[in-house]
Amino acid sequence: MRTPRLSSLAGAAALCLLAATACSGGGGGGGGGDDRMHVWMYQDTLVVVQEGAVERFNEDSETEAVIDEVPGDNYEERLRTAMGSSQQPDVFFNWGAGSIAPYVEQDMLQPLDDLLAEDPEFAESFIPSILEAGKVDGVQYGIPLRGTQPVILFYNEAVFEDVGVEPPETWEDVLDLVDAFNEEGIIPFALAGADPWTEQMWMQYLVDRIGGPGVFARIQQGDSEGWRDPAVLEAAEMVQDLVDRGAFGDSYASVSYTEGGASTLLSEGRAAMHLMGSWEYSTHLDQAREFAENDLGYVEFPPLPGGEGDPANVVGNPTNFFSVTAESDHLDAALEFLKYTAQEEYVADMVANGEVPTTANAEEAVADSPNPDFATFQYEMVRDAPHFQLSWDQALPPDVATPMVTEIESLFNGQTTPEQFVDALAAL
Amino acid sequence: MTGGTGNPVTAGTAPIGPSAVGAATRGSATGTPGGSRGGSSARAAGPRTGRPGAVWAVPGLLYFGIFAALPMVLVAYLSLTSWGGLGTPEFIGLENWTRLAGDPLMRQAIWLSLLLTVLTWAVQTPISLLLGVWAAGPQRSRAVLSAIFFLPLLLSSAAVAIIWRALLDPNFGPLAWLGPVLGLRSVNLLGGSTSAFLVIVFVSAWQFIPLHMLLYQGGARQIPASLYQAAEIDGAGRLRSFWHITLPQLRHTITTSSVLMVVGALTYFETVLILTGGGPGTDTTIVPFLMYRAGFRSWELGYASAVAFTLVVVATLIALLMVRFTGFGSMRSTREGL
Q: Which of A40, A98, B78, B99 is deepest in the core (most CB within 10 A)?
């Protein structure tokens, strides 16, 4: 029995090796195994803007570019898997900072400083603070490709009118509103607690308003003791206070954002306010057009009493970026393609699709937006912000971001106290 | 799905010799290619017709080697490295394993996985056994109702999880208006630690009871009617017949179904990913989800490999133990003396 078994095992092993080497034999660099330049995009309705750029690029260039739309849910997993294989894209969509840091570490991305230095006009076409977010360790790896996405406090104007109150301008107002709406049986703040990144937005604003951008900057540099900054504890205590006051209702932990649970609460008037990224506007425009056009109000996150942070600071996603892989077969073409993101037609396409561009000259362009008031509000908010804090889970490396987001969720669920929250984060 | 259900169903219905059934089912239940003991005894007993043993096993062995054994060896190696999916894995010795031993999240995950396994078995076995035995009977409504009960099995796990997530929405799901009627102040099932876990148990039962019902139906159909007739003559009622004939006759089916349930529960994943995302907090983070979280959220593939390897070893051990202690391996016929 023994011998034949062993020999067939050996044969099997030999074949396995053969199969493995046969697979890895295929070509390096460029995408799907053809001559075209592959541009990876996160799949959503706004891709039409990039499609326009690819069309214009293909008219001018000898290299043919093609967009690969990757379904959004697993974009980062797919990208990372592709980057680890021989099927790397030439150009790809990303969030800058932490989202591309692992690739920079492996020298997989093309530095773009020379590109910007050679073409000052191109470099100056972006808002400087936004371009800054495309850097890793002081080297430019990303070129802005999307509109800006600050986090805004949305509210339902009709509900506010019915209850006879005004949108909050101070923290005092926020607490009064929580009581006022609870008395009326309306959830003060819609919150999709099953998707903890929505809770992260609260923490980001609270920590920034209390302690300023320095608190998180220290953490981002890898100093986990930074979580012990008093501002983090105070923010966590404020969250606990809000939860105890019923600011988010009592079933938020079961509400998911992706299924529209929180947004619908706001548009149906069952919740009064919703802290969310600027894309919330397009969501409502799509799901509840009448509400978006008539009753959707928006204000900045209020300042906190005694807070060190500038009340004009903003959190969210400054924008999305294009990066180029260093081993791309179409390196020159890819670099040339990046410049199409600063063209007038590109900016016009963005505005027409409701985005607020991050190019320096966008101020006049946003006047043509489908909703000029909202676009101008957003544009000025971002332009005047001394600091634009990138979402924490994008700014930190994934092995820290994953447990951090879980800790935030536990804090909101009342599963941990603010002190335990700080201890858990400092131990990361 | 057909690959999984094929063998056990055959085990219940095909009118072939006991040793052949034993070999086939053992292969599928424990994951070892070709039962050596069952096979050799058959060969020793039967006439030597020159069956080419080793050569016949080559396709199976190849498949098993490439898709099971080789990846497992690679996972074992990866568990000794630090690797983010890019570049070359860096050898770090036993660091992942010492971390695993001291990780409170892993301890919680093991506890939750075991709890899920026990609850899954305790909930699904009695229900599917009773339903299966019922469905094996001659009632008029049986075919229609069986077909309806069978429906959840046709849906993919992802679809099932998405449906239940929508149904359990606290504001817009059916429970939102049913809750107050039942006297619940708020419906926060997916947001509560215990309730979220019970939802997972419930949804997996809803999804998999049809499969096990089918197994028991097949098994119950095989029980010779003469046994029941004899019992009836002896004055046994329905309950006694069930207890003294149906249950003992279904012994092997119970084992098959239990092994499938236990291994299935230990490797349960999609529903947790979609329905709760391991939350609230980490309260539904069972071992397979922890593996996914470590590998594809935190990108610590070395650590995830250590979790995965532990899971494979534990699941295999439990399956082997179950097969050994239930006497499933020797698979004596339930129809001796008939």
A: A40
d(CA A177, CA A165): 8
Tokens of B281: 């907090």
Amino acid identity, position B114: L
| Residue of A254, A267, A415 best to disrupt the B interface, most CBs of B under 10 A | A254
Q: Which of A275, A290, A282, A273 shows the shortest CA–CA distance to A157?
A: A273
State the pLDDT at residue A391. 92
Q: Which residues of chain B have pLDDT under 50?
A: 1-45
**Token pair in block for residue A203:** 């923490």
Per-residue exposure over B168-191, b if at least 16 CB sit within 10 Å of its own CB, e if not: bbbbbbebeeebeeeeeebbbbbb
What is this model's ipTM? 0.82
Tens-place pLDDT, residues B201-258: 999 999 999 999 999 999 999 999 999 999 999 988 889 999 999 999 998 899 899 9
Q: Which of B296, B292, B303, B290 is nearest to B82 (CA)?
A: B303
Of A81, A270, A403, the CB nearest to B85: A81
Three-state DSSP at B259 gives helix
Q: pLDDT value at position B12?
A: 36
**A–B CB contacts, 8 A cutoff, strictly below:** 125
Q: Taking the domain A37-148+318-389, which CATH number applies?
A: 3.40.190.10
- Express each pLDDT in A61-89 by its tens digit: 999 999 999 987 788 889 999 998 888 99
Does the domain at A149-316+397-426 match CATH 3.40.190.10? Answer given as yes
**Domains of chain B with CATH codes:** 2-43+55-325 (1.10.3720.10)
Mean pLDDT estimate for chain A: 88
For A334-363, b/e burial (b = at least 16 CB within 10 A) is bbbbbbbbbbeebbebbbebbbbbbbeebe
A47 touches chain B (CB under 8 A): no
B61 touches chain A (CB under 8 A): yes
pLDDT at residue A172 is higher than 50: yes
Does A249 contact B at CB distance below 8 Å?
yes
Alpha carbons B207 and B155: distance in angstroms, whole number: 8
Cα–Cα distance, A78 to B93 (Å, whole number):
29
Q: pLDDT digits over A111-139, tens only? A: 999 999 999 999 988 888 788 888 998 99
In whole angstroms, give the CA distance from residue A340 to residue A50: 9
The pLDDT, as a whole number, for residue A424 is 95
Q: Where are the beta strands (DSSP E) in A279-340?
A: 296-299, 314-317, 321-324
Domain ranges of chain A: 37-148+318-389, 149-316+397-426
Inter-axis angle of helices B70-78 and B301-325, nearest 10: 130
